[in-house]
Amino acid sequence: MNAAPPSRTSRARGWLGANPQVPQTAAAFALKTLGAGLSFGFSIVLARSFGAAAVGEYGLALTTLTLLSTVSLCGLDYVLIRTVAGDVRQGALGLAKGAMASVVRSVLAASVLMAILLSVAGVPLLARITGSVQDYAVLAVVSFGLVAMVAIRLVTATLRATDRVLLGQLIDGPLFTGLALVGVLALRLGSVREAAQLFFVAMAVSALVGAAISWRDISRWQVPMLRVPLLPMLPAGWKILLVALSGYATDWLILTLVARYHPTAEAGLFRTAWQIANMFALLVASFDAVAGPRIAAAARMRDHPGITRIWRQAIVVLTVLSLPLLVLVLVAPGWLLHFFGPEFAAAALPLQILALGQLINMLTGPIGSMLVMTGHERASLGYSLIALPVAAGLALWLIPPYGATGAAIAASTVLVFRKLVALWLVERLIGLRRSRL
Q: Strand, helix or coil at 358?
């Protein structure tokens, strides 16, 4: 007697079991969405309490610290994920322990030094260059938030590399943004500076929680820690640093130029539109959080068809999940911006432009991360170094006459350039088109 054919449910379960990154990506995106929602709530409270100019000051501080935290990390968070995920896959747990210890000690020390330099010299220099002390008043009081930002990225990298991806997503998002939102609602804060300080205190607390959990997990590995020198990791690290830095530098440059040539409120409008459009980037980050360590492990085992399959699945998942938000942003941008206050309606066109750029981000998938995780950071560095002067030229051309709209055009154009060049490089170096989903 012939066996009954499997039901659709059993086939679906079998496919999900063979492709665990898909449900894990959905869960990671749910956590990212929760974190983004809480972050929106925090920004809405700031906007309604202190106005667009205060949002601009807060945005400049956050963007500057993000840029400097990337410098402090020197790309070693990505090297850590790639190295530890491969070591764990091969059972070399002693080497994994040693790599984590080397990176964490060095990077935390660098972040403390960077925070001191920022506080003593960096903030006065930025105020002198832009001609406005007020624009950097928030940054002046949260300079040491840089250490908390670096710490939480290290904790997240460690958790991702040891297959605790969802826990990392919970800590680096919903936990600290939730704590910050609860705090800002519960306390009667008198200025945006106090709110920013609260934000970074919440981030530091979350980083400590994540570090404690990670330490507990790693201490269960019944193997001695082997010494892993930092120096051999630096050649890959500095290339990854420059790749990441070019992206963060573009964001910082555009926002800074908006504040330089227009009132700080204009920077607040652009920052708000960028934050909404960044929901699409969260989708890519969600898939990357799950798939990045798997891609690194597959690369260590030379499983190129597996890498290709993960990438193609990313395209499908990202496109499907992004369509509802894309339609909402394009059709009703004013409705979304209304939650921040009536004055933010002026950011409707910049929001639509940024969303169209993010559509290309969805359709190309996490290709930048794929280059890094497969050891092709030199190729990533090449197009990133070209993208930065392109961004500077577009920003200087478009922002003075067009403000937030010009900033959105510049940001979207550079994003599309980076993604299309990366797509060409990935197809050429890994041969993605030769594999099936």
A: helix
* DSSP summary character for residue 229: -
CA dist 145 and 334 (Å) reads 33
To the nearest 10°, report the CA torsion of 61, 64, 67, 68: -100
pLDDT at 199: 92
- Tell me if 249 sits within 8 A of 328, measured CB to CB: no
Sign of the alpha-carbon torsion through 157, 73, 140, 130: negative
Structural domain containing residue 245: 22-434
The pLDDT of residue 240? 74
CA distance 262 to 335: 25
Token pair recorded at residue 307: 């890498």
> Does the residue 9 lie in any domain?
no
Residue 5 lies in a domain: no
- Per residue in 18-62, pLDDT tens? 555 566 666 766 777 787 778 878 888 888 888 878 888 888 888
CA 74, 77, 78: angle at the middle one, nearest 5? 100
Dist CA 47 CA 273 (whole Å): 13
CA distances from 143 to 57, 115, 122, 184 (A): 13, 6, 9, 20
Side chain identity at residue 213, one-letter code: I
How far apart CA 329 and CA 345 sit, in angstroms, is 13
Instruction: Give percent helix, percent strand, percent coil of the chain, each to the nearest 5.
Output: 85, 0, 15
Polymer length in residues for the chain: 437
What is the tens place of the pLDDT at every residue in 336-361? 888 887 888 889 999 999 999 988 88
Q: Nearest to residue 306, comparing CAs of 142, 121, 435?
A: 435
Residue 10 lies in a domain: no
With contact defined as beta carbons under 8 Å apart, do 110 and 72 qualify?
yes
DSSP annotation of 20: T
Q: Are 266 and 404 in contact (CB under 8 A)?
A: yes
User: Is 424 a member of any domain?
Assistant: yes
| Alpha-carbon torsion (390, 284, 370, 230), positive or negative | positive
Task: State the total domains in the chain.
Answer: 1
Cα–Cα distance for residue pair 150/153, rounded to 1 Å: 5
Instruction: Look up tokens 């539109």; give the residue.
Output: 273
Q: If 0-12 CB within 10 Å is exposed, 13-18 middle and 19+ buried, where does residue 410 land?
A: buried
Cα–Cα distance measured from residue 312 to residue 432, given in angstroms and rounded to the nearest whole number: 8
- The mean-pLDDT minimum among 35-44, 144-153, 186-195 falls in 35-44
DSSP 8-state class, residue 120? I
pLDDT of res. 432: 57
